[in-house]
Amino acid sequence: MMTILPIKRNALTILRENALQIIMYLLGTLLISLVGWPLGLVYLAYSLLSNYLYMAWICPYCGHYLLGTCAAGFDVLSGRHFKPQPGRTFGTEFRRRSWVLYPGWFLPPIAGLYLLVFGLSWLALGLLVLFCAVAFWLLPQDAKRHCENCETVDCPRYPKNKKTVISNQ
Prior knowledge:
elongated
C-alpha cells in the first residue's frame, strides 16, 4: 500500500492552487465591467461571497478539510470555523449547495455575449475567450489532478467505486 504524505502548505502554495480561480474571477470582473463598472464590482463581491458560502456549506464535509490537507487551503482560509452537521455527507451537501458558485461561472459569458451582440468589441471578445479558456478548460483540467488520488468515496464530481476503494485498503 502506498502512503501519500500530506502536502506542505504555506501562503504561496495556497495562492498557487487558487490562482486559476482568482484569474477567472478577475477576468469575469473585467468582462462584466464592460457592461457597467458597478456590475463588475457586484460580480466580484458575489464571487467572494460565494466562495465563503462554499467553505461554510460544503467544505466541512470533505475529509481534506477535516484533516487539514485541502490543497486549496480552504481549511486555513476559513480558520476551520465551520463544523459538519450530523447525518450529512460531502456528496449530499455538494449536490445541494454547489449552485452558489454557478453565477460566478456563467454570468461573465452571458455578459460577453451581450457585448458581442450589441456592439462587437475586440476587447470583449478577447476577455470572453480568455475567461472561457480558464473557467471551462484549465480549471477542470487542474481539478482532475487533485481528484485522481482523492479517496473521498461520495464525491459527485469524480465518483469512485466503493468496492474498489475498500478492496485497496
